[in-house]
Amino acid sequence: QVQLVESGGGLVQPGGSLRLSCVASGSIFALVTMGWYRQAPGKQRELVADLTTGGRTNVADSVKGRFTISRDIAKNTVNLQMNNLKPDDTAVYYCNLRQLSSVYWGQGTQVTVSS
User: What is the mean pLDDT of residues 51-70?
Assistant: First the structure.
């Protein structure tokens, strides 16, 4: 089993920044993909960004140039630096880990962008 614990959400004004962090623990294999998804009210959960062990990234077009994903493999941590936040970024952000055929989710952290 794998456990994911997120931190760093909150309320921020448009144009502001937040940094999300996720620490994974448990039975983690060498080849995993870690990343972030988000779900806004009334919408489906969507990929924000993810990062493979080999360093390949997927980043949603809606956040390119504003969000940066990074990972500390030794510490099983994935971070999401979010800059120039917009009201449309308001959502619950979920940490995600995929290894072999298993998918794991964190409990989610709320990000609210509002003036």
Answer: 94
